[in-house]
Amino acid sequence: MRLLIMGPPGVGKGTQAVGIAAHYGIPAISTGDIFRANVKNRTPLGQEVSRIMAEGGYVPDEITNQIVADRLKESDAARGWLLDGYPRTAGQVTALDEVLDQSAQPIDAVISLVADTEILVDRLLKRAELEGRADDNADTIRNRMAIYNEATDPLLATYRDRGLLVEVDGIGSIDEVAARITAALDARR
Ligand code: AMP
């Protein structure tokens, strides 16, 4: 299985990615997690991206594309993967297409988690209190939503046109949403 999971900030992509990847026995690859680990370990990459992340902006495509291309070459990715939080821009869609064309590894499906923006802003503010994430204050949340709507939401149409989009209601318990996702994916197989 080669899957993407997409959706607005706060919709629960990361949580669902981990569960869905475990369900299908594939690695969940989160660009956000990779960047956060680099920031935490103060690597050169981390120093380059920490400010962008703290402001809720997007890391430049050249950096992000290279990280994903390298990660997909690792041995555990040979049996499939679930990409969480990538692609997020039109340039990333193109770069991913090129990597996958070269390795003849088509995407099986794109999970689109859908939810009302107001509910999500509320969730993100609560998560900010719990986790103390630097990119979760009211201003960055608004910034992240605006950038998502402008740069990432239009990409869903690209995958819909390719017949890959699987839209799932993202509101509900973790288990409810997970069950919806696996049911929708299994129905396609
Ligand atoms: P996430 O955990 O997926 O919400 O990602 C956290 C932050 O990492 C984002 O707000 C961006 O600053 C950065 N990031 C993660 N994935 C990407 C991507 N595909 N393109 C650009 N920036 C990204």
Walk me through the structure.
It is a single chain. The protein is an alpha/beta fold and 189 residues long. The protein has a single domain (2-188), classed as P-loop containing nucleotide triphosphate hydrolases (Rossmann fold), CATH 3.40.50. Helix content is 59%, strand content 12%. The chain contains 9 helices and 5 strands; from the N terminus they run βαβαααβαβαααβα. The radius of gyration is 16 Å and the shape is globular. The site of adenosine monophosphate has 18 residues, from α2 and α3.
Labels describing this entry:
9 helices; 12% strand; binds adenosine monophosphate; 189 residues; Rossmann fold; alpha/beta; five-stranded parallel β-sheet; 59% helix
Outline:
59% of the residues lie in helices and 12% in strands. It is an alpha/beta fold. The chain has a five-stranded parallel β-sheet with strand order 2-3-1-4-5, sandwiched between helices.
Mean of residue pLDDT values: 94
Query: Which band does the percent of strand residues land in?
Result: 5-15%
What general form does the structure show? globular
Indicate the radius of gyration in whole angstroms: 16 Å
Listing every helix as H and every strand as E from the N terminus to the C terminus, the arrangement reads EHEHHHEHEHHHEH
Q: Under the CATH scheme, which class?
A: Alpha Beta
Number of strands: 5
Strand order of the largest sheet: 2-3-1-4-5
Bound molecules: adenosine monophosphate
Strand-pairing-aware structural class: alpha/beta
* Terminal Cα span: 10 Å
Counting DSSP H or I runs of 4 or more residues, the number of helices is 9
Q: What kind of oligomer do you see?
A: single chain
Overall tally of structural domains: 1
